[in-house]
Automatic annotation (TrEMBL):
Chain ranges of the GCVT N-terminal domain: 43-313
Record's catalysed reaction(s): N(6)-[(R)-S(8)-aminomethyldihydrolipoyl]-L-lysyl-[protein] + (6S)-5,6,7,8-tetrahydrofolate = N(6)-[(R)-dihydrolipoyl]-L-lysyl-[protein] + (6R)-5,10-methylene-5,6,7,8-tetrahydrofolate + NH4(+)
Residues of the Aminomethyltransferase C-terminal domain: 336-414
Provenance organism: Malassezia obtusa
Family: Belongs to the GcvT family.
Protein name as annotated: Aminomethyltransferase
UniProt gene name: GCV1
Length: 421
């Protein structure tokens, strides 16, 4: 992390000499340097006011937990009531223009055409390299035939923006006769995730009386004016979905109004603030990937168990970056597969080796692993050699130099509760 921070802060590097870095209390200096170079969302002071433990994540200082509420208690509150997450560190984009859909279909395998995707619907997709590897996972929301709202990961911000700019420049030059695509990064825009079985009832209290939330199903979105107490209406974009497996909403808000919306949502007795710790255990129970662990540029959508994001027509056309590898893996099978595991013994963490039943044949590595607060079992996600991915198969996972039994499991580990009407 420090190396990444130093790379992004040339002014700081110039001001601090090598001799200073070797001076007394190097650890304290390094920690201070990291904090100074990390970004802050509009809710940084809000988090500190509510007793957040702040940690580096995705280039930002983000809340891990709040006060004396531990990760397990916070996790369970989201599963049983509602949790409010600040996800403003994520990168929000707008793509506009006559060729916007064509450009997004060039860099992702998503299907965005007028006859396939209606306005104000969303889809999960992946940003692909020319070699067919996943550069990031993202959500694409269609606002119109020539306008799209996209959310990508904060930890990939620099790499994604450089790659998108390069691809867009080439695409616009090649398609100049068909129109032009503009790309806007919505810097400082707020983004809140309200997640849990009580999320709809909480949000409904702030909606206009004529807005029927029951008609906004999973994967749909809308612009709406929230009615906050003692405050002018706040215009927001509400998308039904999230990263926990629960019903919920992601709310995009103008920077100056983000804290007011957070306060209004938190005022409801059903809502508690939740941080990165709970977010990670919730998403893993839901079988959702964390980029940089479960997915990386070497992993294809087929290896990553994301073949479902590629429609039959896109598979057949092969008119997107990396299509050659993906078409080959669809036909012949991928070298690796992303799987779920139920692990006996201690929890298996990222990097733990996985062996076949013979105990000697190494077949893969754990990419994410936790004790599941909901199931009371140790669960993990892994990449293993093709052929060892059959549900119910037995494998061995090495933890602290000892091999423990594990069973290949279906994902999600905890059934999703997305609202589909």
């Amino acid at each position: 992390m420090l190396a990444q921070v130093w790379k992004r802060a040339p002014a700081m590097r110039a001001a601090v000499s090598a001799s200073t870095m070797r001076a007394a209390a190097p650890r304290a200096f390094h920690a201070a340097a990291v904090r100074a170079a990390l970004g802050r969302t509009r809710l940084f002071d809000f988090h500190e006011k509510h007793g957040a433990k702040m940690v580096p994540f995705g280039g930002f200082q983000m809340p891990l937990t709040y006060g004396k509420v531990g990760q397990v208690a916070s996790h369970k509150h989201v599963r049983e009531h509602a949790g409010l997450f600040d996800v403003s560190h994520m990168v929000q984009h707008k793509f506009k223009g006559a060729t916007a859909a064509a450009f997004l279909q060039h860099i992702t395998p998503a299907t965005l055409g007028a006859d396939k995707m209606k306005p104000f619907t969303s889809t999960l997709s992946v940003l692909l390299s020319p070699e067919g590897g996943i550069l990031d996972d993202l959500i694409i929301t269609k606002h119109g035939e020539d306008e799209f709202y996209v959310v990508t990961n904060a930890g990939r911000r620099d790499e994604d923006l450089e790659y998108i700019a390069k691809q867009l420049d080439a695409f616009n030059k090649e398609n100049v006769s068909n129109g032009y695509t503009e790309h806007e990064v919505m810097d400082h825009q707020g983004l809140l995730a309200l997640q849990g079985p009580s999320a709809a009832a909480v949000l409904e209290k702030l909606l206009p009386q004529d807005f029927d939330l029951s008609k906004l199903t999973f994967g749909q979105s809308a612009f709406v004016d929230l009615q906050l107490p003692n405050h002018a209406p706040v215009h927001v974009h509400v998308a039904r979905g999230g990263y926990t497996g629960e019903d919920g909403f992601e709310i995009s808000i103008a920077p100056e109004e983000t804290e007011a919306v957070a306060d209004a949502l938190l005022a409801d007795a059903e809502v508690e603030l939740a941080g990165l710790a709970a977010r990670d255990s919730l998403r893993l129970e839901a079988g959702m990937c964390l980029y940089g662990q479960d997915l990386n540029p070497s992993v294809s959508p087929i290896e990553g168990a994301l073949a479902w994001t590629i429609s039959k027509e896109r598979r057949a056309a092969g008119d997107f970056l990396g299509a050659e590898r993906i078409q080959c893996e669809l036909k012949e099978g991928p070298p690796r597969r992303r799987i779920g595991l139920i692990v006996e013994g201690p929890p298996a963490r990222e990097g733990a080796k996985i062996f076949a039943e013979d105990g000697t044949t190494e077949i893969g590595r754990v990419t994410s692993g936790i004790p599941s607060p909901t199931l009371g079992k140790n669960i993990a996600m892994a990449l293993v050699k093709n052929g060892y991915h059959t549900r119910g198969s037995s494998v061995l996972v090495e933890v602290r130099n000892k091999k423990h039994n594990a069973i290949v499991s279906r994902m999600p580990f905890v059934p999703s509760k997305f609202y589909r009407g």
